[in-house]
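Repro case for the chain-ordering regression, as requested:
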Amino acid sequence: MIKTHPLWDTYPTIQASLLECLELIIEKITIENKEIEQTVTALIESQGKLLRPAYLLLFSQLGSVSIDTHKKIIAAAASTEVLHLATLIHDDIIDESDTRRGSETVQSKHGQDVAVYTGDLLISVYFELLAEATDSIDLIQLNTQSMKRVLMGELNQMSHVYNTDITYTDYLESIKGKTAQLFELSCYEGAYLGQSDPEIIELSRSIGQDIGIAFQMLDDILDYTQTPEKLSKPVLNDVKQGIYTLPLILGLESSKEAFLPLLEKGEDLSDKELDSLVTLLHDHDCIERAHITAKHYIDKALASIDSLPDHSGKDVLYSLTKTLLTRED
Amino acid sequence: MIKTHPLWDTYPTIQASLLECLELIIEKITIENKEIEQTVTALIESQGKLLRPAYLLLFSQLGSVSIDTHKKIIAAAASTEVLHLATLIHDDIIDESDTRRGSETVQSKHGQDVAVYTGDLLISVYFELLAEATDSIDLIQLNTQSMKRVLMGELNQMSHVYNTDITYTDYLESIKGKTAQLFELSCYEGAYLGQSDPEIIELSRSIGQDIGIAFQMLDDILDYTQTPEKLSKPVLNDVKQGIYTLPLILGLESSKEAFLPLLEKGEDLSDKELDSLVTLLHDHDCIERAHITAKHYIDKALASIDSLPDHSGKDVLYSLTKTLLTRED
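-- result from build under test --
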């Protein structure tokens, strides 16, 4: 019996649709080697938050969608989650992560070889679902452009590893690609498939971008403030891998000399030095300032949602977004 | 100035179209980090044989294609090469290969991280080109199914690593997926876009499958018979990685006890032991028998091409296929 993240217990209608998405995804993934299939199924069933499909579903409700398009919208929502899962599997190769959502990763269990091809397989399922969701080549093109931007974002982030001159603008560009792009796509695609008016579709895209930016900023803050148990994934990994995110970038921009001696250790930062780095970030108010930056995008997203036409779905959208963007795990 | 493989010097019309494909691919790939972009461009320009786009172009000529669909067919042909390049980049991560077509691989030059995302980026470009080539969601679906089968083929091959009980049937299933599928797709898609009659489109698919099977069998034979210089890639790598291909499978099926003592060394096979293995394969006529098996598919493909309606493109198709399937590099 598949379950969704407890977050959805408060929203039973969305929860039911999200379960349909998960069942559809599992139906599409058949791998001869049943052990590999089992690991992938476990990832799908691991109660991720399913934010991208949820936003697609919620934005689709704003329009004049008819009951016979329900299946197509489920397929579209499922497709966004599958692309997300593919990037998670490939990210885990790169990060050499052993756990994800509390379970062993594909690469840790079956080797990076299997992880590369399994991620690719999910990308093919992503387009398979998309082609079931729409007859519109425009929407396929929009998706290929989004996927391209996600990967450009990942590659750009790599150009900045161990770069202590990285700026807030570099960071913003990178997260707009690697994270916000998929939220943008989900919200836009939902409004498009729900046949909203063009200006609502465009506003949905912009709301998605703000949510995505805020979401990644909060994620990057949590990496410095939470325990691995609470997040169900390792913490403080990014900095050792040379990925400098919002709190640290704010620190570097305001007092580089304070952080350089620690960052010069590169991947050899010890646990004790990581603790010193976190203390230093607090000393320089970096966590607090990062929260203020994230809050700007949260407030912008909420104000835009508030400006949407009145609709029962709008209240869910507002309360969900508010809950998400004050999350602690 | 981009050049194509010398193979195409004899076929100037196809050569011109293939150059258009390469230019289109390069145009689609923009990476902020210019060193990475340069490595990808070098791979694109490295004079691979461009067989998949060439077959797509040749089969498109059998139909009643008009001049204004030329650009679309170029985009479709380019898309098949881009998917092939994506799989090459991901294969090189798995094989830990340092060279490909005589140049350093993406993973060897920039690390496996960059190779994972660059391969993914090419998959997005694959669908981007495809969406430029067609308005037909059916064709998008066909491509997603093909890509899925290619990856199932790769994953199935992995289920058989170091499996000395692997049979000819397992092998055939695996190469039908990982190699023949893309040839099948190219020939089918060419005939489809060229608006051939349904029975010609179906025959094209079957010709593509036979060509793909024969091509992979010959590739696997060359791995045991050629020098790395001649092939511009390492040889005898597969067996150390536990990938047992046609010549060795024929050996295992006819006299397992002769091969087992060497294969038990797994990845620790020394160069001397590899030489002994090759000698053993010759002693058991495995290379010759593999050639006979491949020839069955070559003859089948050529006979089917011969049965196509008369057309100037048909002669090119026949002579090209004959040349390819008697290749030594």
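Ordering looks correct now. The radius of gyration of chain B is 20 Å.
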